Every structure is written in structure tokens, then in C-alpha cells.
User: Fold this.
Amino acid sequence: MKIVAWNVRGAGKNSCASTIKDLKKAFNIDILAVLEPRISGPRALTVAQNLGFSHYHIVDATGFFGGVWLLWNGNSVSLHVVAHSSQSITALVTLGNQWWLLTVVYANPCSRIRESLWKYFDGLACASHLPWLVLGDFNDIASAGEKCGGNLDLGGRSFVEWIDRNQLVDLGFFGAKFTWCNKRNAEGIIWKRLDRGLCNINWRLLFPEAHLSYLPRVNSDHCLVLVSLDSNHYPARGCTPFRFQAMWMSHPDFPKFIHANWSIGDGHASQKSARLKSSLISWNRQVFGCLFQKKRRLLTRLASIQRKLCWGHNPYLCDLENELTKNYNMLLEQEALLVAEIKKYMA
Assistant:
């Protein structure tokens, strides 16, 4: 199971919706939390319905502030929302005979309002002793080492006390050290680790191989937070199954290619299919594969640049980050055009 939480700071933007759809497909996301979408009402419903998930629960933003959405695929996960507040949504997740709680959070930037959230979570913890994962943007840090730049900040005392009081464990992370950047000039730039995953001991014991990764910041000033419940030891590349890609049919030479390769040699249908599969893999790599490889390479480069920027401002790397983000968005637009052509072809 894959769970993602992302502070998008405006889910109504086309770039955010395109990024969510792309990452959903790339990482096989089962559950998505959209934080601070800054839209509400009918417009929020329209955007949520078009993100490709079968179910959703929305806590509306207040004007242009806040908001929390929880979206999930009903065919891959059994999830039932049991509580929500202005800053969080809590759901009961069922995996086989295992039950656990997932809380997604967008904590208020105002410390007074944010402290009320920790008290609310105390109540949740007392009401249930189930395994519990809390994920999202906490708008606070736990120590001075989770901030770079600006005035000295030791972290919110109430936040740390809540973590200790409930004996929560930080999942740690793979990726950049900081998850948020104010994107100002060299004198005023500030980095913080505002986004994280916390769990109780029961959840950690239930999912000992679960791990958290910070994906590159794209079209937002926050990293995406990805929690995978499975091991981070992935199968060898050669073990991935072959999948026919519908977009291949949009290429004008595809029918000729199939006819030519199917006609080569003798044998029954299964033998011809096996030969055709290897030809399709090579053809995809030369024709279409480059599009997806470019996206993967761009995200990898962005992740590397953002890790380096956590250690100090570098104008060249900042410019390169902006350029790579533009290139990523351009590839998303190209892919959207390709999908449109496929739909036209198949109509």
C-alpha cells in the first residue's frame, strides 16, 4: 500500500492536478491526502472527482486558508472515515484481518489554533488503542536541527510534548533533509522539516518494513510525503511484468510494425507473442520510452538538487531547479496531448 500526503497550496491549479495524476500512476498511490488546497465548495468537489480516485472525503478550506482532502481507491483499500476536524481527517483502514487508524493533518500556522489540534489528538488516542499513523504537514518542527535560516527556532514545545505524551515514533525519511522552503533570496531563505509521519508503537510493530520518502518539490513549496507499507527492497528490473501500452496504438507506424513482426518466422500464436513482446520492449524504448525515462530522470535530478540546497543557498542550483520543474511540466503537457490522441484514435 502507498500513501501520499502533499501540501499543494492550491489544488485548483492545473499544474497541481497534472502532477497528482502523474505521481498516482508512477507510484501506484492507494491513498492521497491533499493539504491546504485553498478551494472549497463545488469547485473542490469537481477537482477531487477528476483526480482519478473512486472515493474522497473533503474538509473545506475556510476562504483561501487550509482544507484537508482524503482520497482513496476503493478497489485496493478498505477505508472508512470515522472523524474529522478543521485540521485533520481520521479513517479506519482494514487490511485483511488487521485494523488501524490513519490520520492526515494540516496543522494551522497559528500556534494557538495548532495547539488545540494536539489536545484533539490526545482525545483520539484515548478513545482507541488501535495502531495509529499520523501523516501530513504539522507546521512545526521538533528541534532546532529541523530548520535552516532565519531566527533560531527550537521547535514548538507543545508539539514535542504531544509526541512524547502519546509515545509516538517518527518514521524517519529518505530524501531531502527539509520538506519546505520559502523560496526567497539568499539572505532570507528558510528551510524547515514541516511534513512527516508519526506512529504509535502498535503501528510500527504491525508494519516493521514501512518507510517514508520525501519526493521532490514540484509545483509546490512542500515535498510530497510517500509512505510505503512494504519493504524498500524493490525487485530487479528484469522481474517487472510486461504491460501493453495503449498509447502505442496512436503511433502511425504501429500497425505496420505489428504486421511485420507478427509475420516473421513460423510457430503458433504463443510463440509469435513471445517474439513480439521483446520487439515491443525495444520499440517502446526507442519511440515512447524516452518520455517516461525523461520524467524519471528529471525527478531524480530534482531530488538531488533539493538535497544539496538544504545545505546552503546556491543561485545556480536554484535556477537549475526552476528549469527542471518547467521541463517536467512540459513533459506532463506532452503526455496529456498523447493521451488525447489515444482517446481520439480509439473512439
